[in-house]
Amino acid sequence: MTARGKPMRRVELFIATSLDGHVARADGRIDWLYHDADYGYAAFYDSIDTVIMGRRTYDDVLGFGPYPYADKTGYVFSHSRPPAAAGSVTFVSGSPADFVARLRRLPGKDLWLAGGAGLVAAFLDHDLVDDFIVSVHPVVLGSGIPLFPRQGREIALTLSGVTSYESGLVQLRYERRR
Predict the structure, then answer these.
(1) What DSSP state is assigned to residue 168?
(2) In angstroms, rounded to a whole number, what is the distance separating the alpha carbons of residues 3 and 66?
(3) Tens of pLDDT, residues 75-98
(4) pLDDT tier, 151 (very low <50, low <70, confident <90, very high otherwise)
């Protein structure tokens, strides 16, 4: 809650992982992700109005076709600005903590931390993630880009929900214990 008693905008990590904790193959491919069902994505997407991602994730998203989040406010953390930005995207740099503090003061829905691994690590380092919504795909990749590449400290979570699907995918919901 904010000082005025209004709910604070939450930072939500909605992400998929393999059973062995990888968000992508070592070369960045995500061909193993299930696309046969919604898996709660539409309801989640309706609950947010802002998408935050790293530059590599942004470039990957553009490689899939038209920018899919044009109806949301988008922020891309980057050390350099690309020649053109798609949709309603603003490139930012600097402290994630200062950036999120500014966004939390603005009215709106929750914030989606969409990735990538480096930005997720930076948000965790600054204790900025409120909710972890992790879709575990029933596949062991053996190697790849880890969901949590480095963890400088322990982060206590409380399980707030589990949904299992016929495909074998399990979606875990955790809240940051504060």
Answers:
(1) S
(2) 40
(3) 999 988 666 666 679 999 989 999
(4) low
